[in-house]
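Researcher: Next entry in the queue.
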Amino acid sequence: FQTPIILLTNNYIQRAHPWTALMKAVTVSIGHWLLLCDWN
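Model: Structure for this entry, 40 residues:
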C-alpha cells in the first residue's frame, strides 16, 4: 500500500531536485560508516 506512494514521491523529488540521488548516496555512506563504528 505504501510502496506506490513512496515510488511516486521519489519520482517527484528526483524531478524537482536532481541532487536528491547524491544526497541519498551521502546519507547511505554515513549510515554505513556509523554502522562500522558501532561494530568496532
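Model: The chain has two helices and no strands.
Researcher: Noted, moving on.
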